[in-house]
Amino acid sequence: MKPGFVRVIGGKWRGRRLKVPEMPGLRPTPDRVRETLFNWLGQKLGGTRCLDLFAGSGALGFEALSRGAEYVELVDQSADVVRLLKEELAQFKAENALVYCARVPAGLRPPAQPFDIVFLDPPYQEDLLLPCCHYLEEKGYLANSALIYLEARAIIKDNDLPQRWHIIKAQQAGQVYYHLAVRDTK
Length: 186
Description:
This is Ribosomal RNA small subunit methyltransferase D. This protein has a single domain, classed as Rossmann fold, CATH 3.40.50.150. The protein is globular. The protein is built from four helices and nine strands, in the order ββαβαβαββαβββ. With 186 residues, the protein is an alpha/beta fold. 39% of the residues are buried. The strands form two sheets. Strands 5-4-3-6-7-9-8 form a seven-stranded mixed beta sheet, with helices on both faces. Strands 1-2 form a two-stranded antiparallel ribbon.
């Protein structure tokens, strides 16, 4: 497992590097995509509870912590990835995060309280994005007005998502389509 690196691009840890294990299917969200996403989120991160599913390099969860998220859960199905993320959290002295290994979505721990922001960037070949969206909605993982980041190999439309979700931003970078959805309060 030979690591590469990604950098945290903003906040208190700006410029710090995260190790990225060399594993099949692991593709960290590119810097310019992360920068756009966190510009979309703007000042909404302060005091939020975030869930980073399919955490991989941890770039999205660490970026959220760096920019003021109150708490982040990072979940990955690889025990090696989880071990590396725990080491990184210890090096960053981040105490407001939890990392655990689980098959998503069925292996997720029930939330202590709903999440304000969720990052969904599953391996494309496993076709888990939309099933995860519906699982999170049905099982009470989301706060009212939650924001959900979706990364996929194809564009996502509102009618693909749970009824209360609506795409508010979408862009493409190369072969990556990325979206920000909001959960309606009704």
